[in-house]
Design goal:
The protein is mainly beta and about 325 residues long. Helices cover about 5% and strands about 45% of the residues. Strands 1, 10, 11, 12, 13, 14, 15 and 16 form an eight-stranded antiparallel beta sheet that branches. Strands 2, 3, 4, 5, 6, 7, 8 and 9 form an eight-stranded antiparallel beta sheet that branches.
Length: about 325
């Protein structure tokens, strides 16, 4: 994964990004994954079915059939019966824009549940996470996704799926974000975007990175708006560029932040310097928005860009 230009020629500007509100449903932990076939691993890269549940879109399942992948399937084990409402699918090879274009993507899929009932869906040919909503909630212990049609890639005749998330009928623990503002972020490049939306997409290898022309990111900020007043008392944070440990060390990470709430109150918090999810607790209060200001950072070994991979608020 290559970083974009370290310092954009554009001045940092205020960006407002309105985003679609995700469903108020909790994500189901995937117990295991089977596949009809997988492309053989190389010394450095795995194409195994388990890649669709590792929280990274840069690792992918690639079917291992001789043809285009028609008829290939991947089966999700939910670890017991769950009443599920929808799934989210990162279709194709999301390692980069180039890889996405060059590999096949699923077009028509058939879902088979543990009671052998089926539902069919046609997917869009877009490098965007796609919500697949069921006609009504389904109680099942497994979901088999069979590829019934494809969008052809420009180079490779292999069909890929990068990540799958399953949601049940239970309330989401973390508050839904309706809009965001930030002090500025790096422009999109061949690897993808660095926008604020990356900080609540449940993926470890997508991130927000600030875009100060000069400086290490100190003083930059992100504001999350919930669209209503909610009770907030903790922040789940994945600090830095969590693509992998190498890029995490190379990029800047936060060490001190201030949370500023819609009522004008604020709280200073120390952030741990490690590549793991951490829960930051603070005095609970009602708020319709929270701004994270980065007061101090640890400078990386190579890239002078402050990054944040995940930030989600809960009561």
């Amino acid at each position: 994964m290559s970083m974009r230009s370290l310092f954009s020629a554009l001045a940092s500007i205020l960006l407002l990004a309105l985003v679609a509100t995700p469903a108020d449903a909790a994500q189901v932990k995937i117990a295991g994954v089977l596949a009809s076939s997988s492309y053989p691993d190389s010394e450095e890269v795995s194409y195994a079915a388990s890649n669709v549940k590792d929280g990274k879109v840069s690792t992918v399942w690639v079917e291992g059939e001789d043809g285009s992948g028609l008829g290939s399937w991947i089966e999700i084990d939910l670890g017991g019966e769950q009443t599920i409402t929808h799934l989210r699918l990162w279709n194709g090879n999301w390692y980069s824009w180039d890889f996405w274009n060059r590999h096949n993507r699923a077009k028509e899929i058939e879902l088979t549940f543990s009671d052998q009932s089926t539902q069919k869906f046609t997917l869009k040919d877009e490098k965007l996470p796609e919500e697949i909503r069921f006609i009504k909630p389904v109680t099942t212990s497994t979901i088999k996704i069979k590829i019934k049609g494809i969008y052809r890639g420009s180079t490779f005749n292999d069909t890929c799926i990068s990540e799958i998330a399953i949601f049940n009928d239970q309330p989401e623990v973390f508050h839904t974000v309706s809009a965001t503002t930030d002090s500025g972020h790096l422009p999109e490049d061949a690897d993808g975007t660095y926008a604020v939306e990356n900080t609540w997409d449940m993926l470890n290898d997508t991130m927000w990175c600030e875009n100060q022309k000069d400086g290490d990111g100190t003083g930059s900020w992100i504001e999350y708006r919930f669209g209503k007043t909610v009770r907030v008392g903790k922040l789940l944070l994945l600090n830095g560029n969590a693509y992998d440990t190498t890029f995490w060390r190379k990029s800047n990470r936060a060490t001190d932040i201030t949370l500023t709430f819609s009522d004008g109150s604020s709280e200073a918090i120390v952030v741990k310097d490690f590549i793991m999810l951490q829960t930051l607790r603070f005095a609970a209060r009602d708020a319709s928005s929270v701004r994270i200001t980065f007061d101090a950072v640890k400078v990386g070994t190579e890239y002078n860009d402050l990054c944040l991979s995940e930030a989600r608020f809960a009561e």
